Amino acid sequence: MPTIYKEILIDASPEQVWNAVSDVGAVHHRLVPGYTENTIMNGHERTLIMPNGGRVREIIVSIDEKERRMAYAVKESRMSLLHHHASFKVLPHGDNITKLVWTTDFLPEQLASEIQARVDRGSQVMKETIEAEVREGSRSKE
Question: Digits of tens for pLDDT over the chain (142 positions)?
C-alpha cells in the first residue's frame, strides 16, 4: 500500500496549528478554503462539499488532544479509491514554528501521482490559511 508522508513547516505555534487541525467541522474555513466549500458533520462522519458539487464522505477516526493527532478515513468519493486513511500530527519545531505531518495511505497505487499532487497543493493551502489566520489574530489584538 502506498504511503505519502508530507511535512509542512508553519509559522505558528503548535497550539494554533492544533486548534485549526482539530476543528474537523471547519475544514472549509480553517484548512483548505477554496478546495472545500462546506463541511457537514453528522456524529463522527464528515462530508466535505467541493466547489464543483462533489462530495467526500469521511469518518473521523481519532482526535487525540494529548498527542495532537487527528486521523480520518474516506468512506466515499468520486475517485476510484479502494482504501484511503490519513492522519495529521502536530509537532513543535523551533521558536513559534510547527511541523505538521500529514501521512496518507491509499489503494490503488495507480492513484499515487494524483494523490501526491492533491497532498502537495493541500499542504500549501493549509500553510497559507493557518498563517493568515494567525496574522489576523495578531492584528486584532493590537
Answer: 899 999 999 999 999 999 999 999 999 999 999 999 999 999 999 999 999 999 999 999 999 999 999 999 999 887 767 899 999 999 999 888 999 999 999 999 999 999 999 999 999 999 999 999 999 876 655 5
Q: Residues near 141 by Cβ (< 8 Å), separated by ≥ 6?
A: none
pTM: 0.92
Cα angle 26-28-30, degrees, rounded to a multiple of 5? 60
Beta-ladder partners of 40:
47
SS3 content of the chain, % helix, strand, coil (to 5): 30, 40, 25
What is the spatial distance between Cα 91 and Cα 15, in angstroms, rounded to a whole number? 10
SS3 call for 76: strand
Overall fold of domain 3-141: Alpha-D-Glucose-1,6-Bisphosphate; Chain A, domain 4 (3.30.530)
In this structure, what are the phi and psi dihedrals at residue 117, rounded to the nearest 5 degrees? -65, -40
Distances (CA, A) of 57 to 41, 67, 87, 122: 10, 25, 16, 17
